[in-house]
TrEMBL record:
This is Class I SAM-dependent methyltransferase. Residues 5-66 form the Methyltransferase putative zinc binding domain. InterPro entries: Methyltransf_Zn-bd_dom_put, Methyltransf_Zn-bd_dom_put_sf, MeTrfase_14, SAM-dependent_MTases_sf. GO terms for molecular function: methyltransferase activity. Keywords: Methyltransferase, Transferase. The lineage of its organism: Bacteria, Bacillati, Cyanobacteriota, Cyanophyceae, Nostocales. Gene3D superfamilies: 6.10.250.3100, Methyltransferase, zinc-binding domain (6.20.50.110), NAD(P)-binding Rossmann-like Domain (3.40.50.720), Vaccinia Virus protein VP39 (3.40.50.150). It comes from Anabaena azotica FACHB-119. SUPFAM superfamilies: S-adenosyl-L-methionine-dependent methyltransferases (SSF53335). Residues 247-406 form the C-methyltransferase domain. GO terms for biological process: methylation.
Amino acid sequence: MTCNCRFCGNQLKYTFIDLGISPIANDYLSPPHLHQAEKFYPLHTYICEKCLLVQLEEFESPNHIFGDGDYAYFSSYSDSWLKHAKAYTELIVKKFDFNSHIEVIEIASNDGYLLQYFQDKGISVLGIEPAANTAQVAIEKGIPTITEFFGTEVAQELAAQKKQADLLIGNNVLAHVPELNDFITGLKILLKPNGILTMEFPHLLQLIDQNQFDTIYHEHFSYFSFLCVENIFAAHNLTLFDVEELPTHGGSLRIYGKHNNAELPNISERVSQLKAKEIAAGLDRLETYITFGEKVKQTKLKLINFLVTAKQQNKSIVAYGAPAKGNTLLNYCGINKDFIDYTVDRNPYKQGLFLPGTHIPIFHPEKIRETKPDYVLILPWNIKEEIMEQMKFISEWGGQFIVPIPEVKVYPSPSKLLSYAHNGGE
């Protein structure tokens, strides 16, 4: 299939990684749907040789993924993510000397997990969230939220109502946007002349360095280096004046933007430092991207080999979490109920459902205490410390944690790390 770059329009010819076919990662199944046909789509990621944007084709519309009323991801069920959101609020208010007279707008505001902290400071907030069920939770918290997909049209409507942002936020949304140019045009319209925008997204450098291929799924249309994203924003007359490297999601960037004609803030040295770091890592060269696939294949083989060895030893294996990244991992590696008895998740909206493709059932975390498995495979490895602390009681029966990314490692306890070789031994 011929497809073109969603930013520059160049024809896409080069593969970044081909993960076969997979269902939509957040299309969890209810019991009546288990015996119905599932849709599987190519999970083939390309690299644009012209602008170096890593991207997927659009097979399902964002409306299907986010807007059908049963989107399963709620940010507030991660303690570490709430802590991150609160710390961001404190940082940004202090950094820019914001007071209660500013207007804060967040795009993809989910269940109000972040805006609640600004609201606690008496700051006016507005959320824009396409998923009706998560937006409703925010509204019930008292956080004003409109249920829309953000883009140029929504931005124009809000600007006409004199609703523009002194601080415009978009955490983990940029990757979810198929119409990238329309989205960033909307950002420019919604941002006040001297306003500041911040956006967070997984850093492509970390995806490559740490072998985080499972963060690729149909909900993520694009994957960004700083070199690439700076060019994209510059094409829309927005200047990125600062950047931070964050540990979240296995390694993310927080970019700070302003209108080109805004005198302040000044451009931070961190911008040139990160660009130099990415160039040193080869992110300005096509060759760096097209060799990634071999590393991923080796990880797949190691994980399957470990699980086969464990099952041959009559070990019981369950999983923790039902994240989208976990569904990419399981479907690409062909790991189903033959290996994993069940998974658990704190999110009650996922409990009682089944993972797409693999049909692994999802239970409340207490299920692990009841069945006492030998191994717990941590699917949201980016918050493994939080999970191991929650589930540390598995040490009572000698249970161990498996972390699959960047390579298979086993944690007998939160404080001790063992690495297992191909045969499953220490």
